[in-house]
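Re: Re: ligand-bound prediction request (bumping)

Still looking for help on this. To restate: I need the protein modeled with adenosine-5'-diphosphate bound, output as structure tokens. Inputs repeated here so nobody has to scroll up.
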Amino acid sequence: MHRPLLELRGLQRAYHTGASEVRALDGIDLSIDAGEFVAIMGQSGSGKSTLMNVLGCLDRPSAGQYRVDGVDVATLAPGALAALRRETFGFVFQRYHLMPDLSALDNVAIPAVYEGVARGERRDRAAALLTRLGMQDRLDHRPGQLSGGQQQRCSIARALMNGGQVILADEPTGALDSASGREVLEVLHGLHRDGHTIVLITHDAQVAQHADRIIELADGRVVRETVTRQARADQVPMRRSGASGGNRAAVALESLLMAGRSLAHNRLRTGLTMLGIVIGVASVVAMLAIGEGAKRQVIERINAMGTDLLSVKRGVAGVRGASRGIETLSAHDLGPINALPGVAMAVPETDRTVLVRQGNRDLLVPAVGTGESFPLVRDWPVRRGAFFNAEDVRRHAQVIVLGHNVARELYDAGTDPLGRFVIVNNAPFQVIGVMGPKGSTGGGTDRDYQMWMPHTTAATRVFGERYFRDITVKVKETSLLAPVERSVHALLVDRHGKEDFHIRNQSDLIEKANEAQNTLSYLLASIAVISLVVGGIGVMNIMLVSVTERTREIGIRMAVGARGGDVLIQFLTEAIVVCIIGGLVGVALGVAGALFTGRLTGWMTVFTAAPVLLAFGSAVATGVVFGFLPARKAARLDPVDALVRE
Ligand code: ADP
Ligand code: MG
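Reply:
Sorry for the wait, this slipped through. Here it is.
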């Protein structure tokens, strides 16, 4: 039984604009056989383009039926419709609809991308088609470098790329001079002879004469049908391709190339788009490198203080201000601690700010009451003179050792302070030594702006308090730290009858420093997340604009058979590529920035892989998350709407 290739029954297509309804197609019954050459003719606005869009499955009818080789297209899923457009139909548009950035060859090859054809084969086939249409010398020209007739031949070659069994040509000669128009019609005749079904849409009666059958439309209805020539009897059966769809990997690779081209084309915009990502990634990398450097520095300082030290402090650990007024840790504890096995020496420290007077100079200086082993325990050499000895401590000697900066402020450069007297809280003290400079701690206290006296003298003559702030215990070997800590603890609990003190060792301090640093890192990381989100919103914004701008490109891609998923991949790839490049630039800038800052300030910078990977990974994730919305918007565009908008 005879079955037409394309069959319309009572087909309607209405457009709704506001309250009014335009019936562009109003009950069309039409059959087109395989191998026919049909012209559809009518005035402008009669519904020809609408009919072609329905025939080519770019548009769906509002009512009625459309069957392609017996299959009702209303029953087909979007993917199957895309396959029909890709494999069966070939579109030729009045305005060619070529992509301006691609060469003739690449334009022709696009439909095969979505068919999953390998690149080499694609290009060979495109070159062969262009050669067949007399374009062999123009393969690498861009559309802008081609004449109208050449562009139209290029678009015909594209229509043939995947076979193009049915060529749908909407006013293919409308934009051409008469000579080029004749050439294009010749090409269509040639294709007809080769077995292609041709549907030629035109408002020009002379052009329509080229067809075997002319169907005239007016106001969306068929008003006349004329057979000019007897159609060939030999029916060409519809070819069905076995391929059910393109190969996604080929599409992804192609998307990567397209993304590169499109980004390179808009360099300034691409740069601005990735700016947020660059700044976000660079700041994470730089800040964490500087933070890590600061941490290492603190740990180094703590280690320099000695890993063989225990610090016994009064009060209970973790209770702020608990040490004030607690009467514990006295000179009586010192002897027993010193006597414990494994203890090298124990040194008490208590400090008060006191008034020191020399001549007519008055200074407020922190005074530290301590023991004779202080320079040894603290690894802090005396520069001039000597530290006080055990005898000085025993007999409450009124001797004092000045910090480097205190000596500088009390005495003029030429004066030797050794042997001279200063007045501390009305008591005369003899200067017996000046400490070497030590610099300031991380906390900003100037360690060279202190002075030291025997703790016995401090207790009786200056502070009026017999209790120590802390006792530093130096063990004989680092390995003895833990057992000595236990025995000091047991001894003091035994002596005091309660635990009114706490013991710290270096690893506690390092842990504290680590904790502080980690808090800082979390803070920095959250700032970085915020800036990446802001960067991501920037990417999304630009991508949305780009989708709107490239609506026509999306329409063309869909007309030649791209599925929604292919378009999604394309735009998503673009967003991800922007973010990857932004991430790489950001990492480079961050490293450079941290090194530069380190140079400038003398801070230590330490690069570890984790923050770099984290920042880079977040940038890529940002691309995926914020690229998705624009990509989906592009994928959901209706091919007709996309093509109509110009
Ligand atoms: P032709 O191609 O024969 O010039 P069209 O098929 O483009 O005619 O248009 C047929 C009718 O449908 C016209 O009246 C036109 O204004 C209307 N039309 C076409 N496309 C749209 C649309 N997207 N929205 C609203 N009306 C439309
Ligand atoms: Mg039209």
